[in-house]
Amino acid sequence: MHDRQPALARMATFGAAILSTTLAAACADMCEAVAAQATGALATAQWPARAIRFVVPFPPGGPLDISARLIGGRLSEALGQPVLVDNRPGAGGSVGARLVAGAAGDGHTLLMGALSTHAVNPWLYRDVGYDPVRDFTPVTLVANVPNVLVVHPSLQADSVKALVALARSSPGKLAFGSGGSGSGGHLAGELLKSAAKLDLVHVPYKGAAPAMADLVGGQIPMMFDNLASALPQVRAGKVRALAVTTATRSAFLPELPTMQEAGVAGFDISTWFGVLAPAALPGPVLDRLHGEIARILQLPEVRERLATFGSEPVGSTPAQFAAFIRAEQKKYARIVRESGAKAD
Hints:
Oligomer: single chain
Strand content: 15-25%
Shape: globular
Radius of gyration: 27 Å
Order of helices and strands: HEHEHEHEHEHEHEHEEHHEH
Largest sheet: 8 strands, mixed
CATH superfamily of the largest domain: Bordetella uptake gene, domain 1
Mean pLDDT: 87
């Protein structure tokens, strides 16, 4: 009996030590969770602590710039801090995207990213200087701008079907212009070539505007352009629109079929742009930022302004935007590879 007492005492001491360790671990986990919540709440309460820099990776005056200023003004009113648009053009948008990728993920730097910065450039350039997935926090897809296939009125093709037949009858003779190698117009043309098995000649220009000028002048027979810039020429009768490149028809030209409806299966290309932040953006800040921008995109005056340059507002969740970017990367990796396009 006496011999068992020390053993029992040791067992009690050991049990107490285990219980103490377990309680300590549980307390540590609880404290860590509470601390994380407190940190998140503090980050939200203190954000924004200063002006927000909204980087637009293209020159002033374009759809991305106008949209950023439209959103930024109302975001500033909601958050009580200035939202300053900073245009950083270069390398198809890669210069501005690289700047934001290297910024602190505290919600004080944003990017109006686009198709080029997050789905095309990583495959087009040898090194863009950032990872389009790892280095960013997607906030929301802002808008889609459909592209449109337009031809010179003298071309004997009043439909996509007629255009395909004409191209097949003279392989290597029909040319299409674009704003440059690797541009959206170029890749749309390459997708048409591969999907319809056509032999078309690509004529790159230094920008979509000079390409459109030559199309109007009859120097080139066709091109893909974004609907915003092509619409005035279409309505003036200077070019003929055959189809939009998106999977659904555009509200701006509802009578115009999609490329898929016109017989080119799987054709779905649009110019899109959305708001992203650097990686590691605190969850509470992301939630507030997304909520405010989603609200802004529903304002009638904002939707009307976006519509003036052919943009169709979206306002996706961060998860939806992230999935959309991954799908676009997969699609354009194939198109760029098959086209052999290179920007440097």
